[in-house]
From TrEMBL:
Cofactor(s), names only, from the UniProt record: pyridoxal 5'-phosphate
Family from the record: Belongs to the glycogen phosphorylase family.
Protein name: Alpha-1,4 glucan phosphorylase
Pfam families noted in UniProt: Phosphorylase
Length: 832
């Protein structure tokens, strides 16, 4: 609590309120407290102070936003529009203070007002507008865009309920509704004047206009209004402030019910309810049955609003429609916004009366598509009946795009009807579906994967035919993460040490971290490095104790796997290793293995039974291991609940070992792996996603590699993989599986984990059993390496030193140069 007495705080507030020099910021906070919230210092709660502080910070950003917007409007600049169904932006206050360079000022001001900045920071709700990596990537990109002074807009959906909150009850995941807006969102600016109508359902009518041209009119069954909700995105120590524009759905004001017959009336009421719920809730991904009508409606809704907004900005500037692609680059973050291909065509043809060819040229030059998955089951498709009933006009346009496109395929590959079938935008096998990845690919001038391996595999597998036809369209942009949030903000101790050691250029050019190599053998630097890491581990240990009641030793090896729970990410491989290590410890309590603390975190999609069972297994193991006095302190297992961006701030800086153990060929990139590396964790991992590049950068000697390669995975599957044989061949593995089957980790219940065991022994689609032995051997090498503190510290330093490539600044520079052709625009707040 406060160490400034209440009376003194009030006096300070009064002083601040009366233009005493030096109190400017404090003054703003008090003014916002009174004028915006109708509270005053004597009665203000910490939440009130948080809001007043946030509003005062926002005011500073809006001055920069105004300067940015004014400059963009005046100059002939190209704007990068990042279209994403998810933006997992994390708490804003700390990051905004950091980027504005006013952390110390805010700290002092709040202290004078009797408040601790850290307490206020802790009050901020996580804006959970994303599921995981994909949404977080979009947020990192907005930070880098602003920092690199690129004119940009993030476009997405303002979900009223974001990703659910996770609790653990009796070892199981329990979900509760995320109510992030309950106490208000001080960062949001609602703009009722920036709104657009989006049509759904109904039918189309063809007519011929006065010039004898074919015109199509869409007569929708209903319209939904999208209202802009903006959040300022401040660049780091620059005056650029861009916006994240999220669309909130509203029912249109008036409904002319007279026009309806009785049946249509009830339908209309129902549809009205639907329009009001359109932006209510974020869909958790990885749901096995995801063909939800509302989800397609959400996608079309935010895409249509965003494209209409871009057209309006173009009109406001007085730029002719022919130059649209010179004014905007629009990136599709996965296929979720890929209906943009049809919608931009519709807007250009039906509403702006362009010819098909002119519209198609603009569409292709504007759009680019980022693929995020090779898992065939995760490639988005929509059944034709659903698509037809919800979006009749866009579907007609997709048919026409497809007709012209397949003509082109036939011209290039005469007689190859198998290829035509594979490339068609419509899947004609079984129930007919629209293939969104094909649509996005055909409508874009650039298609990229998110790590070198992923981009290669993309060209060999899911988009092979397209890569053959348009080789020049395919490229790679390896993902990155922002060093502001994931190092400066969440690991301030390390950031300070870096500043002292190599200067602070690394904050805007992470490649400069390479200068650390010169200090990798300096004993004094080692001591400082370890002291910071121990502090971070102590802080995480305290949070673990508070949330789970489990005591962990900050001197143990912190072995951490945090990410969404999914079979391909193989948390169960980690769990099997823990069981085998536990058995060894039970048999030989004097085993000279390093004390380890295994920490897991991550949410499972509510409908993904196997992932939820894996969470239950981890908690079952934790219950047994943590309560076994015989192995005293040699190992601990923790499931840290509700992993999100906010909690991640304590997790990534505290890791000694980063678990990146997905089946090779399945993880597109991963970004958690990068956050760990930047903070000095060593990786144990497969050659998957960006792990390949992490190992290249860090050096093979600073990385723990195991497992089958993507090619070997492929070959093994082709040859006929029989997982049970691996269990038969290994005592360790068989014993671990037996213990699970005996109910050892389910309080005697022998049925609980049967689905998991059956799956592993009969199918094991992600080759957990095939990789087990090599994983165990690799973990033993980790334990061995941990015994040599000096060598481990050196490897840790080398990981941070070589992590420069994984800055989102590098990734965004590549998008700007190779795909968007956008350039920085200097914003100067001081200019009139
Ligand atoms: C970075 C991040 C992820 C992505 O983690 P991966 O290990 O790359 O799957 C998921 N969730 C949150 C909250 C993150 O910050």
């Amino acid at each position: 609590m406060s160490d400034v007495p209440a009376a003194e705080a009030v006096a300070n507030a009064k002083a601040a309120a009366s233009d005493v020099p030096g109190y400017a910021f404090q003054h703003d906070v008090v003014r916002n407290l009174i004028c915006r919230q109708a509270r005053y210092p004597d009665i203000a709660t910490p939440q009130d102070w948080y809001m007043a502080l946030a509003f005062s910070v926002r005011d500073r950003m809006l001055a920069r936003w105004a300067a940015s917007t004014k400059t963009y409007a005046a100059k002939d600049v190209k704007v990068a529009c990042y279209l994403s169904a998810e933006f997992l932006i994390g708490p804003q206050l700390g990051n905004n203070l950091l980027n504005l360079g006013m952390e110390a000022e805010a700290h002092d001001a709040m202290r004078a007002l009797g408040q601790h900045l850290d307490d206020l920071l802790a009050l901020e709700e996580e804006p959970g507008l994303g599921n995981g990596g994909l949404g977080r990537l979009a947020a990192c990109y907005l930070d880098s865009l602003a920092t690199l002074e690129i004119p940009a807009i993030g476009y997405g959906i303002r979900y009223e309920f974001g990703i659910f909150d996770q609790e653990i009850r009796d070892g199981w995941q329990a979900e509760s509704t995320d109510k992030w807006l309950q106490k208000g969102n001080p960062w949001e600016i609602v703009r009722p004047d920036v709104s657009y109508y989006v049509s759904f359902g109904g039918r189309t009518e063809s007519t011929t206009d006065a010039e004898g041209r074919l015109r199509v009119r869409w007569i929708p069954a209903r319209q939904v209004k999208g209202v802009a909700c903006d959040m300022p995105m401040q660049g780091y120590r620059v005056d650029t402030c861009n916006i994240l524009r999220l669309w909130k759905s509203e029912a249109v004001e008036s409904f002319d019910f007279q026009d309806f017959n009785a049946g249509e009336y009830y339908e209309a009421v129902e549809e009205k309810v639907v329009s009001e719920t359109l932006s209510k809730v974020l869909y958790p991904n990885d749901e096995p049955e995801a063909g939800k009508r509302l989800r397609l409606a959400q996608q079309y809704f935010f895409v249509s609003c965003s494209l209409q907004d871009m057209l309006r900005l173009m009109d406001a500037k007085g730029t002719p429609i022919e130059r649209f692609a010179d004014l905007f680059a629009a990136q599709l973050n996965d296929t979720h916004p890929s209906v943009a291909v049809a919608e931009l065509m519709r807007l250009l043809i039906d509403e702006r009366l362009l010819s098909w060819d002119a519209a198609w040229d603009i569409t292709q030059r504007t759009l680019a598509y980022t693929n995020h998955t090779l898992l065939p089951e995760a490639l988005e498709t929509w059944g034709l009946p659903l698509f037809q009933s919800l979006l009749p006009r866009p579907l007609e346009i997709i048919y026409e795009i497809n007709r012209r496109f397949l003509d082109e395929v036939r011209r290039q590959y005469p007689g190859d009807e198998a290829r035509v079938k594979r490339m068609s935008l419509i899947d004609e096998t079984g129930d007919r579906k629209v293939r969104m990845a094909n649509l996005a690919t055909v409508g874009s001038h650039a298609v990229n994967g998110v790590a070198a391996l992923h981009s290669d595999l993309l060209k060999q597998t899911v988009l092979r035919d397209f890569a053959e036809m348009y080789p020049g369209h395919f490229t790679n942009v390896t993902n990155g993460v922002t060093p502001r949030r994931f190092l400066m903000l969440s690991n301030p101790g390390l950031a300070r040490l870096l500043d002292q050691t190599i200067g602070d250029d690394w904050t805007r050019d992470l490649a400069r971290l390479d200068a650390l190599v010169a200090h990798a053998d300096d004993p004094a630097f080692h001591d400082a490095w370890r002291a910071i890491r121990r502090g971070n581990k102590t802080a995480l240990a305290a949070r673990i104790r508070n949330t789970t009641g489990i005591d962990v030793d900050p001197d143990a090896l912190f072995d951490i796997q945090v990410k969404r729970i999914h079979e391909y990410k193989r948390q169960h491989l980690n769990a099997l290793y823990i069981i085998s290590l536990y058995r060894r410890l039970c048999r030989n309590p004097d085993l000279g293995t390093a004390p380890r603390c295994f920490i897991f975190g991550g949410k499972a999609a509510p409908g993904y039974a196997m992932a939820k069972l894996i969470i239950r297994l981890i908690n079952g193991i934790a219950e047994v291991v943590n309560n076994d006095a015989a192995i005293k302190g040699r190992m601990k297992v923790v499931f840290y609940p509700d992993f999100n961006v906010k909690n991640g701030h304590w997790v990534y800086p505290a890791a000694d070992l980063s678990e990146q153990i997905s089946t090779a060929g399945k993880e597109a990139s991963g970004t958690g792996n990068m956050k760990f590396m930047i903070n000095g964790a060593l990786t144990i991992g497969t050659l998957d996603g960006a792990n390949v590049e992490i190992r290249e950068e860090a050096g093979a000697e600073n990385f723990f590699l195991f497992g089958l390669t993507a090619q070997q995975v492929d070959e093994l599957k082709r040859a006929g993989y029989r997982p049970a044989e691996y269990a038969q061949g290994s005592d360790d593995l068989r014993d671990a599986l037996d213990q699970i089957a005996q109910g050892r980790f389910s309080r005697g219940d022998k049925d609980m984990f049967r689905p998991l065991l059956d799956n592993l022994l009969q199918h094991d689609p992600f080759l957990v059993l095939a990789d087990f032995a090599d994983y165990v051997a690799c973990q033993d090498r980790v334990s061995e390496a941990w015994r040599d503190t000096r060598q481990w510290t050196r490897m840790s330093i080398m990981n941070t030193a070589r992590s420069g490539k994984f800055s989102s600044d590098r990734a965004i520079s590549e998008y700007c140069e190779r795909i968007w052709k956008t350039r920085p625009v200097r914003i100067d707040l001081a200019q009139p």
